[in-house]
Amino acid sequence: MRALPTKLAVVQHTAAEYLGLIEDHLEIRGIGFRYFRPFTAGGRLPRFAETSAGLVLLGGGPWGIVPGAARLPWLEAEIELVAAALAASQPVIGFGLGAQILALAGGGSAAAGKLTLDVGIATRSVEGALGGLLPPIYPLVRYGRDSVSLPAGARVLAHDAQGGWALFQLGEHAFGFAGHPGIKSAIVEDLIMEFPEAPDETAAGLAALRAVQAQIEIALAAVMSGLVRVLDLMLPARS
Q1: DSSP states of the chain as a string?
Q2: CATH label, 2-238, candidates 3.30.390.50, 3.30.470.30, 3.40.50.880, 3.30.465.10
Q3: How many CA atoms lie within 13 A of 144 on its CB side?
Q4: Does the predicted model carry a pTM greater than 0.70?
């Protein structure tokens, strides 16, 4: 057995987007976390030695994954880090842009898309997903651009209303969520203020998000219990 760092490494891609409601679920279980902010002066991605307890990749607002002005500046370095974590069977969880980076690190491909704020529904497609704790239906809130084709071997655990993936699993220890399951309306409001580019119909999107905030909180309790169970996030050591 080898001792693990006590804190999850959490990569922020913007100042506005953070763990949100997820913070409380980690803190109540005594699961530590540390934010890494490569967009700040002196900020950086976590080193590989800092990710063995688990790596969490947050969304990116208007940042994307295809060549162009909106491409995340440190994308290649982050893909390399995630690929190393996958090769070492470390826990990796991605939300939004973070899930797209996870897919690319696993061998997926990128396609361009416009910046959108979408509030919809995800439907579970695999019985027993997340240790049997993934809700059959849960709110799906996406703020971002571009899209990915999942790598070979990825297992879709939930679909969106259009039949696209809403949650996928890659190997035994990696999960990609199309949206942020712990999002709060304040995060979206701050994203809109942080960047000059914003999605169309933001007022309607925010209203829809506020209308499902209670359902998000209910679904998140089950999602977090499932992630903690299947990833053994509360264990002090991993063989």
Answers
A1: -EE--SEEEEE-SSSS---TTHHHHHHHTT-EEEEE-TTSTT--PPPGGG-TT-EEE---TT-BSSSSTTB-TTHHHHHHHHHHHHHTT--EEEETHHHHHHHHHTT-EEE----EEEEEEEEE-STTHHHHTS-SEEEEEEEE--EEEPPTT-EEEEE-TTS-EEEEEETTTEEEESS-TT--HHHHHHHHHHSS---TTHHHHHHHHHHTHHHHHHHHHHHHHHHHHHHTTT-SEE-
A2: 3.40.50.880
A3: 31
A4: yes
Is residue 40 within 8 Å of 87, Cβ to Cβ? no
Q: Measured between alpha carbons, how far is 156 from 218 in angstroms, rounded to an integer?
A: 22
- Looking at residue 234, its pLDDT comes to 75
Question: How high is the pLDDT of residue 91?
Answer: 97
**What parts of the chain have a pLDDT lower than 50?**
1-4, 237-239
